[in-house]
Amino acid sequence: MGWKETLKEEGLLEVEDFVIEVSIDSECPCKDDQIYPAVLVYDLKNEEVYYLDEPFEPVSNFREALDQVFEWFERYKNGEKPLMKRSPKKSAPEDVIERFLKAIKSLE
Question: Which pTM value belongs to this model?
């Protein structure tokens, strides 16, 4: 099974030092009732959790969320740097971002 199929079926993907979890989440139900892709990145090496803070578009279901995540992963493979954060005001350390990029680029 390829990595895309694993994410589709399980919502989780382990690649190198990371476990990537894709789900859908509401930004603020009281605001606009929209749901968005949510991507958590577990760094097994440093035992830290980060999230991707990309400008995801609203989605109707998990399949649409995955499609957006796959598009972003392709952008990362082509050299775009991910917006990885530990909290809204704190970005992931540069070495973690570099390891994550290397892991994503290893996906076939």
Answer: 0.89
Residue 20, burial from CB neighbour count under 10 angstroms (0-12, 13-18, 19+): buried
- Neighbour tally for 12: CB within 10 Å: 14
**Is 20 strand, coil or helix?**
strand
Per residue, what are the HEC states of 50-78? EEECCCCCCECCHHHHHHHHHHHHHHHHC
- Token pair, residue 46, equals 């440093």
Long-range contacts of 17-23 (CB under 8 A, 24+ apart): 17/43, 17/44, 17/45, 17/99, 17/103, 18/42, 18/43, 18/44, 18/99, 18/100, 18/103, 19/44, 22/62, 22/65, 22/66, 22/69, 23/62, 23/65
pLDDT digits (tens, 9 = 90+) for 32-68: 677 889 999 999 999 999 999 999 998 988 999 999 9
Site of tokens 């954060």: 85
